Each structure stands twice: as structure tokens, then as C-alpha cells.
Amino acid sequence: xxxxxxxxxxxxxxxxxxxxxxxxxxxxxxxxxxxxxxxxxxxxxxxxxxxxxxxxxxxxxxxxxxxxxxxxxxxxxxxxxxxxxxxxxxxxxxxxxxxxxxxxxxxxxxxxxxxxxxxxxxxxxxxxxxxxxxxxxxxxxxxxxxxxxxxxxxxxxxxxxxxxxxxxxxxxxxxxxxxxxxxxxxxxxxxxxxxxxxxxxxxxxxxxxxxxxxxxxxxxxxxxxxxxxxxxxxxxxxxxxxxxxxxxxxxxxxxxxxxxxxxxxxxxxxxxxxxxxxxxxxxxxxxxxxxxxxxxxxxxxxxxxxxxxxxxxxxxxxxxxxxxxxxxxxxxxxxxxxxxxxxxxxxxxxxxxxxxxxxxxxxxxxxxxxxxxxxxxxxxxxxxxxxxxxxxxxxxxxxxxxxxxxxxxxxxxxxxxxxxxxxxxxxxxxxxxxxxxxxxxxxxxxxxxxxxxxxxxxxxxxxxxxxxxxxxxxxxxxxxxxxxxxxx
Length: 488
Fold this sequence. Notes:
The structure is a single chain. By secondary structure, this protein is of the alpha+beta class. The chain is built from 17 helices and 15 strands. The chain folds into 2 domains: 2-188, no CATH class; 201-488, D-Maltodextrin-Binding Protein, domain 2 (3-Layer(aba) Sandwich), CATH 3.40.190. Helices cover 49% and strands 15% of the residues. α3 runs parallel beside α7 (130-155). The N and C termini lie far apart (94 Å).
């Protein structure tokens, strides 16, 4: 009796295949915790899938060769039942979630698509890659079935009857549907690659900070120079403005090992938070949001904003999108949800994928001030990802340059720091966001950016502010690629 249970095909499908797949999955996540980088984890998972495929293919071949001497529909059904069910769940998840991998329906179906794979299903969902859970199941059972079928073929037992042919046809139809839906989804909602802003290094002519290389603009004979024994002002700021204050830091500050103590690039929301909490003396950013102003008032902090340059708040799409110009009202209707298809704007019959930014970010504040003016945004596109401290986080999805996407940013950040030949900047009210149009104020969204400090700034902090307003400081702003606030 025990031998019969042990040698049964279902024993392999219910116990040995999931066991091998679960162990491989566990090793993936164990290694990713050590390696730490998302790309390395993806590469390792893919290689692990190849390893599991080889092992499971051999298991299928060994099982059929050792224990299968005759075949009937029940035995054939064992090969395809799990694959058909998994593909059915995957197609259902695509349809119910409108092709959004982080949608609640997709996550729910992922978890319960196969109870035997519950642990890796949950693990992949937490990692923000639920599609991998389905891939693990399909590859595991597919590899086993391939090895199983090969052994049967060698034995001359692979002679499917009519019922088996119907089941095989259903399998291939579901597989083709899943591939088509996955391809359709990825062409309209491209995967994200989140920068890990964890460290920077100084190396001659550039800074490395997270996933960005910031080219340092040289300053010959700086008119301001700090010494090691000075009370050095701590600076921070928006990611898009890092090249400006990194270049100034390189020329003005003494060279030392503990860069972190005096310079950071933590993005607009965190820079304002650090300034208000006294962790930074000066930040480089756009004007604060209402919530940031309220936060400062609650802490008893008076913010002082000194404009040092101008930049264009821009809207971007894929270069293949035939739409080249939008009015302010059209943008407003896109982001309130009144316009949902590019056809309404003279484009193709494609659903508009309207990306937003995180609250309190510089571009989100600009969007609220310039476009929405108190109107409510439609619900943003969201995604679930794994936080740096191991928690599952739901956040606003970063812009993906899908054919039907639209997003907003700032000219320098989009065209220099994150340049992409497949991105196109839109004209607004017929005016392009060029440097000349920013200078003459004809572009409707020319935004000033500031050095922001507290009222009781230190003596050296004030010296740094004055330097940025001097001819040399304004020349730096211009040489980096922005429009200076002053002309000398």
C-alpha cells in the first residue's frame, strides 16, 4: 500500500515537485537578502528557475521511467491538471486586475492560485513580483511534465486519446492567452526600476549617488572657500538639483572622508523634513507644499526662500505618441479623470495611463499649484514593493514610458539626469519648454527653485547663500544647465 502511494504520479506532483520548487525559491530569497540589489535578485531568480527546470525535468523522466508501465486518461490528466489550473488563474488575474500586477485581485489570486505553493506565492507578492509566483508553478510543473512525457515517449506509451487531446488544446489556448495578456500589459505599463539612494562617492569629476552619476561642473578659483575648522553648513536638496550643490560642495568645502555629515541628496520631501527638524541648514528645492509649510509652523520654524534659478515644469509622453501639444485644461481633465482616452486629444484609441508623483515631492507640489488648483486628482496608479527595512509598502508608481503614458517632471531632470531618447516633452498651449522660453517667461510653467533656510541661519550658511547669488554662483547654475535668476 505504501509503495503504491509512494510511486503514484500524484505523489510526485503534490509532494516532490513543490518541495524542490519551494527549496529553490527559499534559496533565491535567502541570497537576495545577502546580495541586496533588485537586479541581482532578478538574475538569480531566473538562474534558479533554470536550475529547478533541470532538476524537475530529470525527476519527471526518472518517475515515468521507474514507475509508469501503462497510461490512461487519469495519468495523462495528472500531467496537465496543475498547468491548466495555473494558467486559468493567471488569465483570470490579468482580466480582473486590468493588467495591474499590484492590484488586490491579482495579489489575492496569486496567493491562492496553488495552496501547495503558498509560501513562495506570498514571498513573491511581498517582493512586488507576483507574476513570478505563476512562473514558478508553470516552470516547475512544465519541466516535470516534459521529462515525464519524454520517458513515456521512449517507452512507447505516449499515445493520447481524444479526451487528452482536448485537454492539451485547452492548455495551449490558455498559454497563448496568458502570453498575449502579459505582452499587452507590459507594452502599456512598463516595469519600474527603483533607484536605491543609499550612498555616494567622490571620484574626481563626478559623484555617484544611488543609481545616478552626477557630473561635477568645475569652478575655477572659487570666491568662497570653507576650512575644516569652520562651522560648515549642512546641505541637502531635491534629486534634480543635486548637480548644482554637489558642484558647489566640490569647490567650496574642504575635502574630507565624512561627506555624509555635510551633504546629502534625499529628495524634496525628505530635504524639507530634515531642514525643519534641524538636521540640515540649507536645502535646494522648489517651493514647499502646504503640508510642508504647516509642518514648519507646528515646529515653530520660519522658512526663508531665496530664488537662485528657474526651471520648466514639463509633461512627457512616449515619442511614438502622436499628440504633441496639450492645453492646461486638457491636462486638468486627464488628471481629474474626465479625459481617459488619447483619441479625445487627437491621438490613437488608447487608454491614458496618467502617472502621478508622491505627495510633497517638488513635481507633485508644482502639479497641484499650476494645474489642479484645489481640484481632486483621480486615484493614482499604485504598486506594492518591498521596503528597505523589509516591510511591504504601497506607493505611487514611478513613470513608465509606455506608449499610452503621460507624466510630469522638470526639464533638466527628464532631459539630462534621466535622459531617454524614447521620451518626448509636450508643448503647453503651443509653447515648448526651451531654455529661451523659460528665460522670457513665455512657457506657462517656468518655476523658480530656491535655497531654503531657517531664519536664524549661521554666518557661513549666509555666506553660501550670498555666493549662489553672486556672479560665480549664478554662472554655476547656468553652466550646470539651468536658467539663472540673475544676469550679470
